[in-house]
Write a structure and sequence with these properties.
The protein is 36% helix and 18% strand. It is of the alpha/beta class and 332 residues long. The protein folds into two domains: 196 residues, inorganic pyrophosphatase (n-terminal core), CATH 3.90.1640.10; 119 residues, Diaminopimelate Epimerase, Chain A, domain 1 (Roll), CATH 3.10.310. The strands form two sheets. Strands 3-2-1-4-5-6 form a six-stranded parallel β-sheet. Strands 7-8-9-10-12-11 form a six-stranded mixed β-sheet.
């Protein structure tokens, strides 16, 4: 195991160099990501795993929850382990645990033990819980941060499969280059990845046109619950647990549903409310520019970006909706 050393720097450039040094110094690594992993969490983790292996070292990815069928098209996604617990040989067998896109350590869904944790993220409000904190809030995606890590520090040849994992991360976290985190830096990364062999049309086909029938049926049920509040500025969509059986869908099929409310003219915040147990509701919030939903999510211990955040509200669905509408109305 590598000797533990606390890193306090907040410079992305310095932190990236420290991450590269940690990889070179170690032999065996564990990688995880946030619960219900999306394209950025998986794409960045798989890309990092491939770079580590390219150096002749070992790396394993373990995540707490499953993920949607389209993301299995990422080369190497079939190797990702889905488990309620970290491996039995954690932490003693690993030189570091990398947490991808987790602003808070609990977002992994695991009991992370003291030891060398490398926190790689781009969210506002990151708790800087790692021994190394590679945080870059200007990055369009964590996968792009892994690209920067390789470009400036590891300097390994970029093969098509690794580039594709990075591109999935980049494209999905920018809404296929539609969101306001799409910058010149985003397009420079996309160009580099295309030169490495990525076919953008293929990735768009997997992600946007390869969903399950159950996910489409689930979307239909959810959209029937759509309500507008605050003079049409807030949209809410409900997802009771019963909808999964009715649609023949799984929790992985919820990806993207929250964005439909945001698409409505005049709506500045969309909220998807997923029924939990009798006393909790999981909320996903999406905002147009000018509204900070991260501050609202933080009131319930959640977080994310100004325009995209999530939290768990300790109330039944109907009460959680009323509370969030009240708080978001104040925010806008």
């Amino acid at each position: 195991m590598t000797t533990t050393m606390t890193t306090t720097t907040t410079s992305p450039e310095i932190a990236a160099r420290e991450v590269a040094d940690r990889i070179r110094a170690g032999r065996n690594f564990l990688i995880t990501a946030h619960r219900n992993p999306d394209g950025d969490a998986l794409g960045s983790g798989i890309a990092l795993q491939r770079l580590i292996r390219q150096l002749g070292k070992k790396a394993k990815i373990v995540v707490r929850d499953g993920f949607g069928k389209p993301l299995y098209n990422i080369p190497g996604a079939n190797e990702v382990a889905i488990s309620d617990t970290l491996p039995a040989d954690y932490p003693k067998a690993y030189d570091a645990l990398f947490t991808m896109e987790c602003p808070e350590v609990h977002r992994t869904g695991y009991d992370i033990l003291p030891g060398p944790v490398v926190n790689i993220d781009h969210h506002l409000g990151n708790e800087m819980y790692g021994e190394i904190n590679y945080l870059d809030i200007e990055a369009p995606s964590v996968g792009e941060m892994v690209l920067q890590l390789n470009r400036h520090h590891l300097k390994l040849p970029l093969d098509k499969e690794t580039a594709t994992a990075m591109y999935v991360s980049l494209a999905t976290d920018t809404g296929f280059f539609r969101y306001h985190n799409t910058t010149l830096r985003t397009f420079e990364a996309a160009a580099e990845l295309a030169r490495a062999g990525v076919v953008p049309g293929d990735v768009s086909l997997w992600i946007n046109e390869s969903v399950t029938a159950g996910s489409v049926k689930l979307l239909g049920l959810c959209l029937n619950t759509l309500e507008l509040h605050a003079g049409g500025r807030i949209a809410t969509v409900d997802l009771p647990k019963s909808f999964f059986a009715a649609a023949g869908a799984t929790p992985e099929d919820t990806e993207g549903i929250v964005n439909y409310g945001r698409n409505i003219d005049g709506v500045v915040v969309s909220i998807l409310l997923k029924e939990g147990d009798a006393t909790s509701t999981r909320a996903s919030l999406r905002a147009k520019p000018g509204v900070d939903v991260q501050q609202v999510a933080a009131m319930f211990g959640g977080g994310g970006h100004k325009a995209a955040s999530g939290c768990t509200v300790p109330l039944p669905l109907a009460e959680a909706k009323a509370k969030l509408v009240e708080l978001v109305t104040e925010a806008i």
